[in-house]
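Researcher: Structure prediction, please.
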Amino acid sequence: MLHVLARVGCIDRERTRLCSATGETGTLASLAPLIGDGRLYSHVMTSDMTLKADGLDGPWMFRVLRWDLWPVVTAEIKTALDERGVTGVSFQMLHTKR
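Model: Predicted structure follows.
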C-alpha cells in the first residue's frame, strides 16, 4: 500500500486537454470560466495531462495539487521499480513542458 502525501501545483493549464462531465472539451484554462475554477477538478477527465517541469525539482513521488486520481513518479522511480521487477503497478507517460 502506498500513501503519497506531497502535493505539487504543476499542471500546465494552457496545454492540458480535458473533457467536462457535460461534454465540453478544451484546455484546463479554457474550461475554468465555464465550470468555475473551484469545482473544475471534480468535473473533468483528462488522458492528456501536461505538467510544468519548472516546478518539479522537489519530491520524486507526489500527487498533483487538487487532482486525486493517481500519484506521479519521476522516471528514476519508474526505472528503479522496473529493475526490481515490482508487479501490480502500471504507468502512463505524462507530458512535461520546460
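Model: The mean pLDDT is 78.
Researcher: Thanks, that helps.
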